Amino acid sequence: MLDDTDRRILRHFQTDPALGTAELAERAGVTQATCWRRLERLTARGILKGQQAVIDWQALGYAVEVSLRITLDKTVTRAFDDFLIAARDIPEVLEIQTFLGRVDLRLSVIARDMGHYQQLYRSRILTLPHIADIEALMHVARIKSDEVLPV
C-alpha cells in the first residue's frame, strides 16, 4: 500500500506537520514536486486526513478532565442516536467513543474547576437522554498521548 518514499514523508510529516513542502521534501530525500504529489495522493486515498491545531486546554484555564463511562437504556430504539445528538452539543465534551460490551460510550469532559464540573454534570450530562448507568473517572495524569504511527 505504501512504499518507502511514502513512509519517509509520513514519518517526517507526522513528527512536524507545520513543515513546508520544501523542508519536508528535503528531510524525506525527495524533490519538492514529488513530495507535493505524494501528499496529494495520500490525501486522495484517505490516508492523510488533514492537519489540526492542538490547543492546550489547561493553558486556557481548564484544570479538570473526567472520563465518563456510560451505559444506555438499550430498550429504547433510538437511544444511541438521541444520546449522540445531545452529547455533541456540549462544548466541554472533547471526545465521544463508542464500545461493544458492558459500557456503551465514553465521554471525555473538561471543566475549569470542580465547581464548574459539578454544574456541568448536573445540568448537562445527567440530562442527556437514555442513560442507564454512568461512572465518572477523574483524570490524574496523562502518561502518553501520541498519535504518531510507526510507518
Give helix and strand order, one letter per element, not per position: HHHEHEEHE
Number of continuous helical runs: 5
Q: Kindly report how far apart the N and C termini lie.
A: 12 Å
- Can you list the strand order of the major beta sheet? 2-3-1-4
Could you tell me the number of beta strands?
4
- Choose one word for the global shape: elongated
Quickly describe the structure:
The protein is of the alpha+beta class.
What would you note in describing this structure?
It is a single chain. By secondary structure, the protein is α+β, with helices and mostly antiparallel strands. 36% of the residues lie in helices and 20% in strands. The protein has a four-stranded antiparallel β-sheet.
Fold blueprint:
Blueprint: H1 4-15, H2 21-28, H3 32-44, E1 64-72, H4 79-88, E2 93-98, E3 105-111, H5 114-125, E4 131-138
Antiparallel strand pairs: 1-3, 1-4, 2-3
Summary keywords:
single chain; 151 residues; alpha+beta; 36% helix
